[in-house]
Amino acid sequence: MTFADPDGDAITLHVIAQDDLDRWLDGQPARVANWVRASGFTARLGGALPVPDDAGGIALALAGYGTAEARARGRFHLAGCAAALPEGVYRLAGLPADRAEEEALGWLLGGYVFDRYADQTRPKARLIAPEGVDAARLEAIAAGEALTRDLINTPASDMGPTDLEAACGALASAHGARMEVIRGEALLDRNFPLIHAVGRAAADAPRLIDITWGDSGPTLTLAGKGVCFDTGGLNLKPGGSMALMKKDMGGAATVLGLAHMIMALDLPLRLRVLIPAVENAVAGNSFRPGDILTARNGKTVEINNTDAEGRLVLADALALGAEDAPDLMVSMATLTGAARVAVGPDLAPYYCDDANVVAALEAGAAEAADPVWRLPFHAPYEAMIEPGIADLDNAPKGGFAGSVTAALFLRRFAGGANYLHFDIYGWNPTPAPARPKGGVGMGARALLAALPRALKL
């Protein structure tokens, strides 16, 4: 997922909108214009056409850029063209300068394949970075996204808490970061009772992974839900709902991909990454519905559903992060089905009450072609997470506002108003340009673009 060497031979790839095709053809030699017309090329979005030279090679190629209306309904349009082009190195021509960064990144992201378990066909068309685009930055972003996708796509047989720890260790080592891990019974000794309770029934011990990087600048803490597989615990999921639970560590995967981007780009900040890594399994020592657990910050939680475990492990991690009062605290989690019902799989819903962070994130999402949608920390719903018998309820009855109540629950542990929570899906159910079916990062690129404004870097 890198750009091609700009110094070698390249095929010019002309990007042509539908309403500009006739004008472009009028300026071409008859041989080219006749070939394009005979081939039925209409410049529809995603269409591609190589034009041969006299020796049977490729003289040039065309990429359809459709209509403005069609482009407004999606993103990363040239990634679809790349998959349809023959092997070669291509240089773009005719692409509007304000679309260059998005399309170049989309081309890189479209080169991703998950081939750990079976050979996969890799796209053969490579792109020279368009003029004016920061190629190294886009390559770092693509690498972070590839890390996220790889982690989510890997099944729990090879991505349990120990494996997730190893992935964290590799990332920390690559960037000279520091890492501490607290495992098993030591979680109780160090006061992480909720992480321990959720993960204690699994054969692979629960743990808290703590990565730190950077020595100066504002402080950013990222907490990612690392439930490597979620059976639902004693509130066992039905088989259909359990099928994709390898992706329940998608929050951790997205945080780690974002951390790679931050460190690879050497942003001037102090970064902390907290990953509670557990498997929510079933055994004689599973935590139970009706249990009341005490969190790291002293708040008591009544367990009304063991399948609402992600907010529990994040609660201890957020409480730890809040002790250092970072300038910005962010949690990412595949937390609730309610969020998916509300906005579907392509939007990253988020919660934040800091106007500066919200403005920065909305602008960053537009710049990065990484759509987000704000949902409310609706204060009147606070009563829904207060069961009376304990400070908090991990699964309020009634089924209303499930994503909102989960976000309110987490905010009780995150400290001040400088808290941003993403309730992501982490999975692309149908292939799309630059986004093959499978694990996908959501919100990370938007947040990366937002950080200079949000933290005044």
From TrEMBL:
Keyword ATP-binding set for record: no
PROSITE patterns: CYTOSOL_AP (PS00631)
Keyword Nucleotide-binding: no
SUPFAM superfamilies the UniProt entry points to: Zn-dependent exopeptidases (SSF53187)
GO molecular function, one term: manganese ion binding
Keywords, comma-separated and alphabetical: Aminopeptidase, Hydrolase, Manganese, Protease
Domain of life from the UniProt record: Bacteria
Cellular-component GO terms for this entry: cytoplasm
Domain Cytosol aminopeptidase: 305-312
Transmembrane regions listed in the UniProt entry: none
Example GO BP: proteolysis
Entries under Pfam families matching the protein: Peptidase_M17, Peptidase_M17_N_1
Signal peptide interval: none
Family, per entry: Belongs to the peptidase M17 family.
PANTHER family, per database record: LEUCINE AMINOPEPTIDASE-RELATED (PTHR11963), PEPTIDASE B (PTHR11963:SF20)
Protein name: Leucyl aminopeptidase family protein
